[in-house]
Write a structure and sequence with these properties.
By secondary structure, the chain is mainly α. The chain has one domain: Orthogonal Bundle (MetI-like fold), CATH 1.10.3720. It contains 15 helices and no strands. Helix 1 packs across helix 15 and helix 10 packs antiparallel against helix 11. The radius of gyration is 25 Å and the shape is globular.
Length: about 300
């Protein structure tokens, strides 16, 4: 293909990604390295920009923005990450993400195996992606109706006289973890399913013929054969949970404060945009490192 035509085809994608991903991400990183006074000066300069255009003209107003928005670079925002209130939130977010991801993997491997070996494979795949056809918030509110004190689950257990009082299933870490598993499960099943589709099941049959027990065939033949899919599933689920804000906001309580909640609080109520940007940068860095790790594993797998 002609290089000029190639550039023509990819130009819209590059422009879109630059405007709505690369540039905003770079701005967030820059803001994370300035102090609060510099951020306040930037906000003041932006607010005065339009009135200054009417009085002084565009070029003079733009020059005033540059004069007023003086940036003082510092590591204060990153030092705040080691304060107890932030470290507790980081640990809680990591714990919820890790538990959710492990449960997703435990559920995804047998589910993906069943779908792969099923004669109704296409039907199961359609049912797997069917929730994506509905609004995310609607699905979360349905779960609130299920887990609430007067929800379907508590009413069902009370009708069977298993419990006498409603269980606290909502607005706590349990609810956040449960909904995180629900949200991330399809993202875990799909890469594992793809890996299972490429797996040579004759290897399992050979291990059986050689006297290996089913659990030995699973651990030493099956899992190594689909490890790239398992690693991808782990990374997709962990990243999705680690940076999630909506789930904790809708079904979490005060004890379920996660990094996403801390970002929103500092960006809106706390007015500490450098700290919010520093937390966002850390989340992006974690996601980037995990994605690079996954890419390197896939490249090594292809090479071998």
């Amino acid at each position: 293909m002609n290089n000029n035509k190639l550039y023509f085809y990819i130009a819209p994608y590059l422009i879109w990604m630059s405007l709505f991903f690369v540039i905003p991400t770079l701005l967030v990183i820059i803001v994370s390295f300035i102090d609060q006074a510099s951020w306040d000066a930037i906000i003041t300069a932006i607010r005065n920009f339009h009135p200054n255009i009417r009085t002084d003209g565009f070029l003079v107003a733009l020059q005033k923005v540059g004069d007023q928005a003086q940036l003082n670079f510092t590591l204060d925002a990153y030092k705040e990450l080691f304060e107890p209130r932030v470290t507790v939130t980081i640990f809680r977010t990591f714990t919820i993400s890790l538990i959710s991801t492990i449960v997703c993997l435990i559920l995804s491997i047998p589910t993906a195996h069943y779908i792969s070996r099923s004669s109704q494979k296409n039907t199961w795949l359609m049912l797997l992606i069917l929730p994506f056809w509905t609004n995310f918030l609607i699905r979360i509110f349905i779960w609130i109706k299920i887990l609430g004190n007067n929800g379907m689950l508590n009413n069902f257990l009370q009708s069977l006289h298993i419990i006498s009082e409603p269980l606290p299933l909502l607005y706590n870490n349990f609810a956040v973890t449960t909904l995180s598993i629900y949200v991330c499960l399809p993202f875990s099943i799909i890469p594992i399913f793809s890996a299972i589709e490429k797996f040579d099941f004759s290897l399992w049959e050979v291990s059986d013929d050689l006297g290996a027990k089913p659990w030995q065939s699973f651990l030493y033949i099956y899992l190594p054969g689909i490890k790239n899919g398992v690693i991808s599933a782990f990374i997709f689920a962990f990243i999705n949970t680690f940076g999630n804000y909506a789930v904790a906001k809708l079904v979490g309580g005060q004890s379920s404060y996660v990094l996403g909640s801390l970002v929103v609080h500092n960006a809106t109520v706390g007015r500490n945009m450098p700290l919010a940007a520093a937390i966002s940068t850390v989340i992006c860095l974690v996601a980037l490192l995990l994605m690079l790790f996954n890419t390197s594993k896939e490249l090594k797998g292809d090479a071998s």
